[in-house]
Amino acid sequence: MEAFAILLAAGKGTRMKSELPKVLHPVGGIPMVGHLVKELESMPVNQIMVVIGHKGELVKKYLGTRTIYAEQAEQLGTAHAVLQCEPLLRNRCGSTLVLTGDTPLIRQSTIERLLAAQGEGSCSGVVLTAMVHDPTGYGRIIRDPLSGEVIDIVEEKDATPEQKRITEINTGIFCFDNESLFRALPGIANNNAQNEFYLTDIVKVMRQTGISGGPKRFEAIVLENPEEVMGINTPEQLEEANRVFYARTGMFA
User: Fold this and answer.
1) Among 115, 138, 154, 209, which one is least packed by beta carbons within 10 Å?
2) Could you give the residue ranges of the DSSP H alpha helices within 1-45?
């Protein structure tokens, strides 16, 4: 069975207050996206695709021929970004990882667990989640109260007061059955507070269209250490990510 990886690296990262694409800011002296590519290169992944947008030529210059590229000319959301890879992947069978290019602290073992869970369980998809004390700003994981299956992911701006009390959050990292992924993507709409095509809506679309549910469930793996997927959207968060990196590796900045 083949495996593919899509890295989302098209965002501007406005809050970084820098002209550099967010994924090129360094953690431990290496651009964020470089950490992810390095991890994937040492895994049985047949193809690594990077979705580029804002100043994408700089990302291509850094990564060179290590990956192939898809361009998201307009930033219309994460589902729209993944859809740019359809010409490269639509007729392939296997598992497709979707990772955000600004999560350089994720461990290879975590990615391997995600890939194994999708392949061995024949799931339509698996989402990486985390339990946090303060879920503010994150999408909330909605589970079936009886089966525990993931049935929806609701973004903070669209969540009800009750849903906002849920402390299991979406990390933005997934592994899909490739055929199921590209069957479901066209069904995602942008009728939300941001007017964007959210990849998180794929859970709901898969259930509505019968792609998931029943024997082909949408599952979740709960991350033990949320630091692996800490958000890096500001210079302060970048500094914290560097602190975590150097503490983990025993190196000094």
Assistant:
1) 209
2) 32-41
Print burial letters for 214-248: b (CB count within 10 Å at least 16), e (below 16): eebbbbbbebeebbbbbbbeeeeebeebbebbeee
Distance CA 64, CA 5 (A): 16
* pLDDT tens per residue across span 72-127: 999 899 999 999 999 999 889 999 999 999 999 999 999 999 999 998 888 999 99
Active-site option among 15, 66, 107, 165: 15
Give the rounded distance of the alpha carbon of 50 from its chain centre. Answer: 12
143 is a catalytic site residue: no
Q: Which amino acid is at 12?
A: K
How far out from the chain centre does Cα 3 lie? 16
Of 245, 247, 10, 251, which Cα lies nearest the Cα of 106? 245
Tokens of 40: 């994937």
Q: Which domains does the chain have, with CATH numbers?
A: 2-242 (3.90.550.10)
pLDDT tens-digit readout, 132-171: 999 999 999 999 999 999 999 999 999 999 999 999 999 9
C-alpha 107, offset from chain centre: 14
